[in-house]
Amino acid sequence: MKRLLLAALLSLGVSAPALGSGHKGADCAGAPAPVEYVTRKVTRYEPVTKTRKVKVTVCETKYKTEEYEYFVDVPETKEEKRKEKYWVWETVQVPVTWKVQVPEYKKEKRKEKYWVWETVSVPYTEKVAIPQKEVRKEKRDFWVCTPRQVVEEVPVCRTVRVPVTVTDRCGNCYTRYVCQRVTETCKVTRTVMERKKETRDVDVEVITYKYEERKGTRPECRLVEKTRDVEVTVVTWKTEERKGTRPECRLVEKTRDCTVKVVTWKKEKKKGTRQVPYVERKEVERDEKYVEWVAKVVEEKVPVTPCVYHEWCGKKRGGLFRCR
């Protein structure tokens, strides 16, 4: 892009000193120079898409058939005569000795303690609250309702028949009555209860309690311990040794002849075929698209700033495109 911009500026007649002079003239203050448009030939570059033939290396996967050898395990079955051991459950009588606890009963006389519920009178003291009634005078507030007549205006709705003149299609006029609701204001008297507070003397009964101590007796149940003679049967245990036999199951080992099939494995060599992949490279021509920049001369109007001479600073001021 930088090369294209430089070529466009050179085609318009702009040189490097001209570009630099514009920056130097910026030091002088004054009004901007007027701009003029001049028709000139300008070189433009346009992108053009083209197609060309390109050789490309392509890898293609193919398969070929080849022979190979492999080993297979083949079973061989043979019959052999062997001796087999086995176990049988047999019942055997075994002598046993064990000890037995034999009870012996004896009668003995003993003293037994027992408890009996007995009712006993127990003295007690308690305090009793005795009520005493007393009349007192107290002031109480009462609310009294007094009736008062109040006159108010209340809106009342009623239905009134109103005559209406109606003309039919033939032009005949006749009068008919229509019901309408009319709201009127009427005076109504109602009774209003007004509450007033009054204070009165009232006799009030006041109950007070006076505590007195009193004594007495009350029945109470208690457990009393007693003793009596009892005849008790006492059991003692005596150890005795006894002998006998019991059946017992045992495993007994035995031997018998049997025929067993024995399998042996033998390796055999075999041949077969299989598909083996391989990669084949080849060159192929393909169409490739690319972009080429083409130069084109066009007539355009270009802004040109004329040179202005400042008498007070003694310098010339020029713009981007100055006069030649």
Q: In words, what does this structure look like?
A:
- The protein is mainly beta and 324 residues long.
- The strands form 2 sheets. The protein has a two-stranded antiparallel sheet. It has a two-stranded antiparallel sheet with strand order 3-4.
- The longest helix has 10 residues.
- It is flat, with a radius of gyration of 71 Å.
- The C terminus is likely disordered.
SSE ordering: HHEEEE
Proportion of β residues? over 45%
Spatial shape: flat
Biggest pleated-sheet summary: 2 strands, antiparallel
> What structural category characterises the helix and strand content?
mainly beta
Radius of gyration: 71 Å
Main sheet: strand order:
1-2
Number of domains: 1
Question: Which SSEs are present, and which pair or pack?
Answer:
Blueprint (H helix, E strand, L loop, with lengths): L1 H10 L4 H9 L11 E132 L5 E132 L3 E2 L6 E2 L7
Antiparallel strand pairs: 1-2, 3-4
Quick structural overview:
The chain has two helices and four strands, in the order ααββββ. With about 325 residues, it is mainly beta.
